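Thread: manganese (II) ion complex, take 2
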Amino acid sequence: MTHALDFTHDPAARSWLASANTGHTDFPLQNLPLTVFRPAGTQGSSRQFRGGVGIGDQVLDLAALAASGLLQGAAQKAAAAAAGTTLNGLCAQGSVAWVALRHALFRLLGDEAGASQQATLRPMLSPQAQAEHALPTRIGNYTDFYTSIHHARNTGRILRGDTGADPVMPNFRSMPIAYHGRASSVGVSGQAVRRPNGQRLPPGAAAPVFGPSERLDYELELGVLIGPGNALGEPIALAQAAPQVFGLVLLNDWSARDIQAWEMAPLGPFNAKNFATTVSPWVVTWAALAPYRQAWAPDAAAPPLLPYLDDAGVRTHGALDIQLEAWLQPAAGAAQRLSHTTFAHQSWSVLQMIAQHTVGGCNLQPGDLLGSGTISGPGPDEAGTMIEITHGGRRPLTLADGSTRAFLADGDTLVLRGWCERPGAARIGFGECRGTVVPAPA
Ligand code: MN
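Output below.
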């Protein structure tokens, strides 16, 4: 149902707001991403964070819209749920409410809205450039998957050597694997990320040393924000997974590779990952992504899929063609693109991640966050981490200013961008996910 195309996906539709019609904005009328924000430079109660919708270069205040009388029924209930400081209430309402709000917003912000409606809406708009954002949801739980076979292959070769054996672990092709991450350190774009101190075992050393990570890395990922969720003990079947996807954000899973290499056996990453995760402030909804869904197929070398991970829906439209880029902005000097790939290469669908997460009865809750795992494509310029790009640090990158990077330096800003475009559909984008590395505590 929420994968169906409707009038809100018409690429010819235009807004009465000119900045939404440029053809290159991330936020045309067909996108309508949700956020939590407050306008800058205001006083008193208007300083509270509240829900908003991106349109062109503006953000529409959902608290003001909910109080305006312009909405009715399910759309009004949805806007009221988004009027507070998090979108968890809206996540909980489910896809019928989300689509009702989308349809209402499309009609109000489209160029067929009446002059009096436009006059009522204009004071609810404020410039995105001056908005301050909070996390879109209060994240109760965060799980990070590992679903790119290209990333698995690249890192397997780097960590275990090119032995001639398949560098992909045997479980990878049978299920989307994951670890439970840390929700408390998830921050919103603009975050200052403090380089972690920790234990690492230097090459050839007999005992670990303590100090700042020397191999700080990023991971280019997408985050999935969960809708209503499920009761404990009641798995979400694959066919019922789509209405559980509230929307997607960009996600950077900051990773300290030296800490990770020493601590990870046998229980997985811990301090290497739990110091920070950054997400973009704009939630691109599942409905907005409908035109960019496409066929999914298992890896050619995969064994037959178990039935709980396979159905006609995931085969016909389980994959998403989302273009993704990572950029490195040194403290001084020009930003440099590190990679460009598409989420369409990913080995597992977000629908299968939800089915896998809940198959044993684990309960997902409204606003929970699932990371896709690093998104690396097949080509040499499609790797989603520094450890892949520099072959474990052995082939440092040379930046435009002549400096080199095996891993991230203090003062570096890592920027993720994402967008969707395809013939017959509007171009929509995710905005940016940005974080700056600051020195470790003394
Ligand atoms: Mn990750």
